[in-house]
Amino acid sequence: MSAPRHNSRRPRPRHARARRSVRNAAGPQRGAAPTRARALALRVLERVTRAGAYADLALAAALRGSDLAPRDRAFATELVYGTLRWRGRIDYLLRAVLRRPLEDLEALIATLLRMGAYQILFCDGVPHSAAVDQSVRCAHATGAGRGASLVNAALRQLAQRAESLPLPDLAEDPLGHLEHALSLPRWLAERWLSLLGPIEAAALAAASNQPAPLVARINPQRTTRAELLRELRQRIPLAAPCRYAAHGIVLGHAGHPAHDPAFLDGRLSVQDEAAQLVVDWLAPRRGERVLDLCAAPGGKTAALAERVGPQGLVVAVDRHPGRLALIGRTCRRLGLGNVRSLLRDATEDLGGLPGAPFDRVLVDAPCSGLGALRRNPDARWRLRPGDPGRLAQVQSAMLARAAPLLRPGGALLYSVCTLLPEENEAVAAGLGLQTSRRIPAALRPLVDPDGYMRTWPHRHGADGFFAARFERSP
Fold this sequence. Notes:
- 45% of the residues lie in helices and 13% in strands.
- By secondary structure, it is an alpha/beta fold.
- Strand 6, helix 16 and strand 7 form a beta-alpha-beta unit.
- The protein is globular.
């Protein structure tokens, strides 16, 4: 693999449509107030930075409570995710123009600087003058006017010097390049370098900084992929079948699947290709009984229920009542009446579950989520070096509870959307069962000699997933 190029200071949005949306929403506004899209984005970033809120949930809640026009909603979303995604590079370049350490600044001022810097460095449709002016207005509007002069001076300096400020070179300083040019926390840059080497680690980091495409799964109870593709291409001309997932369709970066007629009438669900492959490999058959641990919000639960059909049963277990309710909503939309949701902690005793012993068991365990940074850019800043090892203990406990519930001859699949060995092969090896050699032809390119399936954003265009399939002897 050749070394990726990372010389551009301001990568352009990937689609002209996105550029137009940003340009139209971002122009200078009269009056003292900042644009509403920027004000909303700042509130969300503040919640993420200071209160530890999850960016996707905080943004969704803020947008639900607003009446922003579609182009302004798109711009606010761009500001939130872009600022979080590129915070490492932004902070590195801001330090070059600040007279004080960035860490010593008031949290709100630091967030304002980052959001303004993102517009200067990455948003071609936003004039530098508008990025500076609107950041100053945000400072006054949020009661941080005392820092307005600092924001103004630093962002003006950045706008003047952005093209000339150097970033660490991959060949000369691979760790600095991953940390400062490709926006990874230092501990994660060190881990990826040790696992993959500089060239592939940089390719993974670069792919993790790109917005993920929209991918959908058909409901085989109500349609076929060929039939739905013909219909979707009338609305989304670039819709195409997934490379590996049997029921998957790539929709690209345009459109709103949740508003599509096929979604509303239960023929389509949004789900990344890697998540679909988990169910493809577990391969539940019609009429079987399946246990899904840590099931909420229910994407894989629904896929399992679609496979086993009305005569089968899926028992969905989760310990979060609010998230468990999402499973019922999804199943109603898809017309699935074969799911039973139960409030249980999968690390504790699971005796008495209806349907036990099960033909299939899915343990899609909570994890560090490092394979899904395209979707959750804030995760990289939330995680700490010890978190993967701590989560591995939880994952192992769940597997230990789940394995006895599998009938002889049945199959268990362990999956996580992360890339580190302590959560992946180390946990799988601790189960003490043999990995399955029953691998569908479509998945064979993804399964290594040890019987573990891995997907990578930079290799496969899917989220980073690990999965291991085990079978209990008859």
